[in-house]
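Blinded run. Sample ID left blank on purpose so nobody reads anything into the name before looking at the predicted structure. Input follows.
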Amino acid sequence: ADEASFDNFLVCDSNRLCVERLRALLERSHWTLLLHGASDSGRSHLLTASCQYLERQGAGTAYFPLAELRDCPPAELFAGLETRALVCLDDIDAVIGMPDWEEALFHLYNRIVENATGLLLAARKPPADLGIVLPDLRSRLQAALVLGLAGLDDDEKLLALQLRARDRGMTLEPEVARFILLRNARGMSSLIETLDRLDSATLEAGRRISIPFVKSVLGRDKS
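Blinded prediction complete.
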């Protein structure tokens, strides 16, 4: 519901280096970066934000969530992508170990290097720990710039939740944000889904977000 951008991504001590390096790379024409981090560390958000940033400047980009595309023919999927200013491949660990995917990734990597464009990859682990079977692909990815993205702690998640609320024009008081965090699955994707529900509910009811309102929407008022 809310577009992923750099403006609504919380930059804190745990992820500042990754964000700063990534934004600097986006001003260049030729680069390769692999971001690794646990689920809900913000990998997908940063890949999408990178595409949005360059698209607003008129550059062509492509974003592929590979975990959702495992059954697609990779050679066809990757055909011609080297002409884009930036190609973002999310969850590459979902296709590592599949020979046709590893070969297609290897050839795409080479074409992007030859075309001097950008390649941004994301995975849960760094290249050395991905179990890449194809030696040439393994050497290519290990030679790329690799940055680890740390997840947010609870205090940072509160700030991130408030930031995403403000981005939607909502006011989320600290005590309400903490109430949501304490009564919700702690992953950021789950928190944003909850924020989606609350956003829709406030528009429908014409009410501000308060703790009683959150209880009623989430069906957790057991009193």
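Unblinding after everyone has recorded impressions. The chain has a mean pLDDT of 92.
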